[in-house]
Amino acid sequence: MKNLAAIVLAAGRGTRMKSRIPKVLHPISGHPMIHYPLRALKGLKTGKIVVVTGYGADAVEESLSGFKGLTFARQAEQKGTAHAVMCAAMELEGHAGDVLILSGDVPLITPQTVKALLKIHRKGGANPVSFISAFVSDPVGYGRVIRDAGGKVAGIIEEKDCTALQKRIKEVNAGVYLVNADFLRKNIGGISARNAQREYYLPDLVRMAVEKGGRVPALTHCDPSEVMGINNRVELAAANSIMRERVSRELMLAGVSIIDPVATYIDFGARIGADTVIYPGAHIDGRTRIGADCVIEEGVRIEDSFIGDNTRVKSYSIIESTSLGKHVTVGPFARLRPGNVIKDRARIGNFVELKKSVIGAGTKANHLSYIGDSVIGDNVNIGAGTITCNYDGVRKHRTIIEDNAFIGSDTQLVAPVKVGKNAYVGSGTTVTRDVPPWSLVVTRADERVVEGWAKRRLEKK
How far is the C-alpha of 458 from the C-alpha of 96, rounded, in Å? Predict the structure, then answer.
C-alpha cells in the first residue's frame, strides 16, 4: 500500500507459555504464529517491514527465511513495546507516510482489518495515531481504552496501572496501531517508564497525541477473536481452532467435502482439489497437495506429500514426503516414509512399509511387506511378507525389480540385487544374486514328512 511501512514486534519470550521456545514460534495450523501477520502484510504490498527480535532472535529470524525483504532489529533487553519500536525506528529513517505496528503474537489478523484501520486513519487528513480496540467479556490482562464524556479516545491504560473503576471497562486495546511516521520519530523518545511495570508503553503515544490536540480514531472490531493476542497455551489452542475453521471453510466453499471440520486437521496452505472427501480424524500437514476426486479416510496422516487425482488413502495410513500418482490405493494401516514415488494405479495395501522407493504403474504390494531403497517397475506383484534387505549394518543398498516380475510371498531380497523383467521368484525364496529376465528362482529345502511323529510325541508325555 502507498506510503506504508510496518514494524512487527517479536522480541518477547512469552513467560506465560511456560516454554523455552520463543512465543512467536509456537505453531498455529502448521506454521509459527508470526508467519500470519507477515502474510497479511505481504498481501497488502506493504513497503519496508522491520521485525524486532530479542529472546531467541536467531531462531525467530531463521524461521522467517522464506519471507523476502525483511529487515531485523534487535531488542537486547525487553523493556516494553515502545522500547521495541525505538529499536526499529532507525531502520525507518527517511520514511514518509504511516507506520503500521503489529505484534507477532496476533496471528488471526486479516488484510481486510488492516485496510479498514488505514481507511479511518487517513480519513479527514493525517491523524497522528489510530489503533484497533475490541469489547470483550473478560478484559483481564488487556489495556483499557479510556474515553472522554463525548466518547472520544482519551488514552489507553495498562491493566496494572488501572484503578478499580477502570478495570471494569470492557473496551480493550488490541495492540495494532497506525502511526504517522513523523509523529512517531518526534515522540517515541519522550515515552517514560514511570509505571507499575517500569516499562516503556507504546500506548502512551495515544495519550501524547490527544494532549497535543490530535484526533485518535479507534477501529472497534466486532470480532475480538481476530485481534486476540496469544499469551498462554489455552489461547494458542483457541487460535488453532479458529484457523482450522477458516482453512476448512475455504476448502469446502471451493468444493471439498469435509465430513466433520471440527475433527479434521488441515494445515494452512494445504491444497485440495474439488470433490475430494476428507473423513474425520485426518491430519493433512505441511505443503501437502491433494488432487480432485480423492478419498482420505479416517485417521490418515499426510505430511508434505503430493496425492494425484482419484486416489484413495484408507484408514490409519501415514504418508510422509511422498508422491502418489493417479488412481492409487494406499492402506489401510500403510506407512510411507519419506522419499517415495508411487506411480499411477499402484496399490499399497495394509501393513506395508515403504521408504525411499519408486513403485511402478500398476504394481501391487497388497499386504505385510517392507520395501526400502528400491526401484520397482510396472505391473509387478509383491507377495505378502516380502522384505528388501537393504541395510548391511554399514550402508544402504538398492533393490531393482523390473517390469512384470512376480515376487512370491515370504521372499527376502538381499540388496544389492536385481530381478529382471518377467522373472518369477518362488515363495519363501531368499534372493542373493541377480535374477535374469524370464527366469524362475526358488530356494527351498526338500520337504520331509515323518509319519506318526506327532502321535509318538504325545505318547512320550
Answer: 98
Contact 38, 48 (CB under 8 A): no
Which of 66, 6, 71 minimizes the C-alpha distance to 32?
Answer: 66
- pLDDT for the residue 193: 84
- Same-domain status, 335 and 420: yes
pLDDT on residue 1: 65
What's the domain count of the chain?
A: 2
For the chain, the helix, strand and coil percentages under 3-state DSSP, each to the nearest 5: 25, 30, 45
Q: With beta carbons less than 8 A apart as the criterion, state whether 174 and 106 touch.
A: yes
**What CATH number does the domain containing 92 carry?**
3.90.550.10
Cell of 14: 512469552
Cβ contacts of residue 417 below 8 Å, gap of 6+?
A: 399, 400, 431, 432, 433, 434, 435
Structural domain for 136, as ranges: 4-227
Residues forming the active site: 367
* Contacts for 346 with CB less than 8 Å, ≥ 6 apart: 325, 328, 329, 359, 360, 361, 362, 363, 364
415 located within any domain: yes
Nearest-CA neighbor of 189 among 292, 89, 55, 334?
Answer: 89
Quickly tell me which residue has 535374477 as its cell: 435
Sequence-ordered list of residues with C-beta below 8 angstroms from that of 127, at least 6 positions apart, any chain? 121, 180, 209, 214, 215, 216, 217
Q: Is 246 a member of any domain?
A: no
Cα–Cα–Cα angle for 257, 298, 266, rounded to 5 degrees:
60
Q: Are residues 51 and 169 in the same domain?
A: yes
Cis peptide before 332 (omega within 30 of 0): yes
Single-letter residue type at 308: G
Give residue 123's pLDDT.
86
- pTM of the predicted protein model: 0.90
pLDDT per position as a tens digit, 91-134: 998 898 899 999 999 999 999 999 999 999 988 777 899 999 99
Which pLDDT belongs to residue 457?
87
pLDDT beneath 70: ranges in the chain: 1, 461
* Phi and psi at residue 450, to the nearest 5°: -110, 100
